């Protein structure tokens, strides 16, 4: 079994846990646990109001749609519980400021911390301090350097996202063995970008294709437009483009329109509502997008509540909350967009 397929198998197993979590973080009684679960979404004892828990939440600045939805979804999830007091720190891209926020949570003695670090490596030491102080940390999206820095890690499937995009491109270009494929990546220094690119490359190699032209942006509209303009000048003929992020994709599409290019199709990333509306309308080269869930922090709030109240997932036999959950990365096209658009974020 290849390394890539081992990784996909791991993601699939983790996804089973994610599905359980989303459908029913409920029931902590022996009767609920032994009944097998998974057959319905009926409320159970975990939905009942328990001891009030204080959860600290910190994430980067909401400087684009996906990140804004991360915080909005976390707030909405907390509002659904009478026994959750969510303390939301101001979003920041300043590592020192985010470290100070976590220090404040520790000093205030919160019951749990949900943390989407601007830089996972830089936030690892302070997360370790929180764990050592007996405060469970739920690490969202960008991993810490040390697994002991988090009680639970919730991740989108970045590698799987690249694989999904690559497999879709392969399916559309099966009759073009010499097709030219381009890639507009995100921030190249981030492991998540590297994983997305690796998954994309691995999937393309399975159908005999590779990435012929690649540029990296910064997950912003402006950077997306700038690097795509350069890409289009360097590549006079393209058959497919994968853009890692639908927020920067607004700029990517603007550059494509300005260049008057339409000989290729494009696959987006993250799954924004505006991208899905364009897919529905068929009004641009954008033909599909790959979901990167903006629900991760909301799931983190739900798990933080369970951990602080000493509960577990009802649909699992295990009496402990899992240590890692990886969410799925499905491809959205005109054929299935109606299933996803209502929960999509606005860029």
Overall CATH class of the largest domain? Alpha Beta
Characterize the overall form.
Answer: elongated
Radius of gyration: 21 Å
Low-confidence stretches: 1-42
CATH fold field value of the largest domain: Rossmann fold
Overall tally of structural domains: 2
Summed up, the helix count is 11
Q: Please identify, by name, the CATH architecture of the largest domain.
A: 3-Layer(aba) Sandwich
The major β-sheet equals: 6 strands, parallel
Task: Give the strand tally.
Answer: 12
Give the class from helix and strand content and strand pairing.
alpha/beta
CATH superfamily of the largest domain: Response regulator
The run of helices and strands is HHEHEHEHEEHEHEHEHEHEHEE
Could you characterize the architecture of this molecule?
This protein is an alpha/beta fold and 347 residues long. It folds into two domains: 3-156 and 294-327, Response regulator (Rossmann fold), CATH 3.40.50; 158-293 and 332-343, Rossmann fold. The chain has helices spanning 3-23, 30-34, 65-79, 95-108, 120-132, 158-172, 191-206, 221-234, 246-259, 273-281, 296-308; strands at 53-58, 84-88, 112-115, 137-140, 152-155, 181-185, 211-216, 240-243, 265-270, 286-291, 324-326, 331-332. The strands form two sheets. The chain has a six-stranded parallel beta sheet, with helices on both faces. Strand 1, helix 3 and strand 2 (84-88) form a beta-alpha-beta unit. The protein is elongated, with a radius of gyration of 21 Å.
